[in-house]
């Protein structure tokens, strides 16, 4: 049966309530179109193509499909011939759009400029949210950021205008909240240059975090490659109530799957419990799926999404989605690779940390656990907001807690900050009084930006090295992430729990059972917060912060000064010389966790994200060297002196010596930042050998012409010592699925051989041979012209 279009749905809605009934001709349905967003009125949702591709694949596979499979396979470049096997084959996909935040957009746009293409092939946007430092409050911090980052903002605005990319100015909000409000929709495939892009799964889309080079592929109109993901089903039963929140769902899942349990898989939520969660709550859950290594996360289309679409001015998209709903939910009887079941009625409030987002504790236990472990129980700062929890509902629930404290004369014992997710959220919570309630309880409203969540925090209340505790509604809590202090014990939880704990000032407070004492001396217990998921009135859009790209940007000048310390045009990386990689030195053998924060720190380094040589001065400065247990201190094998990691890498490059890095499990977990791959390549690195990789980082390394390899036997990690030399042999026969041989040469003259695995396919091997994916793109362009 042919699906009806949104115009037909509107006509039915208008006519069914009256006396006369009219037949809507199918030809009318075929002509009506629905725009992907208000900002791109000539770019349309193509559910017909999605349906066609799904039907082709379903017939080929002859089985029910999960929702993840429907949307992913529905975007195949060639659904009739594409080899499909979960966890094994690489898919060639055609995403609908691209989104880039300002820290990663700089390198992405520099690469796109290098491609020589005149304009992006798909709708794309840039969002200015990462370069605003939290210091004294929203307005002042925004003015300061505009002044300090004027060169970068001008580059991004003019590059967007020239190449057809929409530009969201600083102050507009966090990329993921803007996407949810304007660009995500059921069935969309969107890639974004930020690891928390899966936030859009709260609106039923497949939204995947990638590096800038992947974004360039899609913007260039090239099919995008993704290893066919496995699908982990999370069945939700029961209903959220009381102090339990959507954040507790993902905190619980993180505790079950750990930081690498979702690697190579899409997390697909389903079951009767889904309908008890708001659309923005579903986005929270999908957002933090990045912390378990998942490719992305998704919820099936339902009434909560329809309600959100209507409230954000997209009722036409909801009506169209209603007509195609069978393709926006999983098939009955579909099979998952793994199933986790959570009864929401039994789910207790959780708090995860410190130092890793998968260390899960019920809030009722955290005080005792902290005292046992020697973690500080006094809370210095509570921080709510971020891309994970800054919705209208989140702010409303936090305000409901704060209002109770104020009624008894109390304010926060801890410092307290609030980060609105977008200008629309800021304006609406100001209008509806939530912002003032949060100020009255002691809160400081920060700019609509990432702020402390990504280390953009000019923190003054402690000294570096001082042991302390903070609680946040953020998503990530790696060592030093928020304030660059390795002794800050950061815990993540829901905004309402952060608010309650900030009022009490201690981890030993359990709002479900414990009492506070008002200024009148009377004890009282906080009631579980209740708030509207969406405003009763329409959202207040606030200030207009969007810059449309001109129809013809060919005359736009994009300026990159050769003397700039913030921006640097890219030079092509050298091609593989056709020889084996022999006698490589080991720059560092990393001990334990090594996230992208360890490889390429954020915080104050964000200002160099558009200048490859300058930002390379932070290469691996946070990684722990197994030889001496120190960070940013490695032995120079040529001089035998210990020094900073970047300096040592530069010395090897100057001397023409290739080098390798040895890593542990889940190397490169965390952010999508491709600088963690660009920097080692720029400073002469050739190989990264680990026990396992995080998905995005492994792809980023391949894109830049590096060899990410894994030990065939993880125990071989112990055979390599920092003073050894390594040779990777057999590269002339480099082929998909064929292990590579590594010869370890010890200082005493002995040697041993181990085998290394890889996940390269044929096109990725071509990236390595060409020197990078961008080099390979240029080669293909030259051949075609």
UniProtKB/TrEMBL annotation:
It catalyses: citrate = D-threo-isocitrate. The keyword 4Fe-4S applies. It is found in: Mitochondrion. Keywords: 4Fe-4S, Iron, Iron-sulfur, Lyase, Metal-binding, Mitochondrion, Transit peptide, Tricarboxylic acid cycle. Its EC number is 4.2.1.3. Residues 533-560 are annotated as: Disordered. Residues 69-505 form the Aconitase/3-isopropylmalate dehydratase large subunit alpha/beta/alpha domain. Belongs to the aconitase/IPM isomerase family. This is Aconitate hydratase, mitochondrial. It comes from Anser brachyrhynchus. The gene is ACO2.
